[in-house]
């Protein structure tokens, strides 16, 4: 829902910590990205496990979990629609219950979205959850990143100023026009509406198809 409503990138969503979320004032701060994990074998060379590094039982993670957003546009505050505030509040309560149930098995991390026992959620897990969600909903297959296109287009349809769209989407000033051209998709209905407005402006409003019978008789 965060991706759909606000067009967040996957890394931005999975990198969110509760310290970045202000439910009272209804906004969140984006300032870091969750990186895809990278592993090396931890097993001994003399007795290799025979698996890929990511599936080695003694694997070692060699890439940090997150990195700070480099661009100023990427570091931004984004307003939260009220329904998302409610959903995040319930999610926080559910997570607190999971933490209590897990006890000593819980890995504390302060991430908004975690694994069942805490710790950052894997981008690969998020990917498969997204695919399952599409399948369960009976809609066409698509990338998680496609939701970012949807969010940008909805903002345009709502008449949100370009400068505000740029901030919400995290687009740089120098590339914002190019990004809007890439991400904003004009629906057929909007194009038809524009055509009708042009027709009305140049040729005048079209006569009504319905003519009152009494007016016909008077004529």
Give structural notes.
The structure is a single chain. By secondary structure, the chain is mainly α. The chain is 44% helix and 9% strand. The protein has nine helices and seven strands. The strands form three sheets. A three-stranded antiparallel beta sheet has the order 1-2-7, with no helix packed on it. It has a two-stranded antiparallel ribbon with strand order 3-6. The radius of gyration is 25 Å and the shape is elongated. The model has no long low-confidence stretch (mean pLDDT 80).
The radius of gyration is 25 Å
Principal-axes geometry comes out as elongated
SS field, number of helical segments: 9
The helical percent reads 40-55%
Average pLDDT figure: 80
The percentage of residues in β strands lies in 5-15%
Profile the largest sheet: 3 strands, antiparallel
Number of strands: 7
**What is the H/E string?**
HHEEEEEEEHHHHHHH
Task: Indicate the multimeric state.
Answer: single chain
Q: Biggest sheet: strands side by side, in what order? A: 1-2-7
């Amino acid at each position: 829902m965060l991706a759909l409503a606000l067009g967040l990138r996957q890394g931005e969503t999975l990198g969110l910590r509760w310290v970045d979320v202000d439910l009272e004032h209804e906004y969140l701060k984006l300032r870091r990205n969750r990186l895809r994990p990278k592993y090396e074998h931890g097993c001994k060379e003399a007795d290799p496990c025979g698996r890929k590094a990511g599936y080695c039982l003694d694997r070692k993670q060699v890439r940090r979990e997150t990195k700070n957003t480099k661009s100023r546009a990427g570091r931004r505050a984004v307003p939260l629609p009220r329904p998302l505030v409610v959903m995040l509040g319930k999610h926080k309560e559910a997570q607190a219950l999971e933490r209590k149930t897990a006890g000593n098995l819980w890995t504390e991390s302060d991430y908004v979205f975690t694994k069942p026992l805490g710790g950052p959620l894997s981008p690969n897990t998020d990917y498969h959850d997204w695919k399952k969600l599409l399948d369960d909903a009976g809609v066409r297959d698509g990338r998680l990143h496609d939701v970012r296109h949807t969010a940008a287009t909805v903002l345009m349809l709502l008449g949100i100023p370009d400068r505000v769209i740029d901030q919400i989407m995290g687009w740089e000033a120098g590339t914002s026009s190019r990004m809007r051209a890439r991400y904003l998709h004009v629906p057929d209905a909007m194009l038809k509406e524009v055509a009708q407005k042009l027709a009305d402006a140049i040729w005048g409003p079209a006569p009504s198809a319905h003519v009152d019978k009494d007016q016909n008789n008077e004529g």
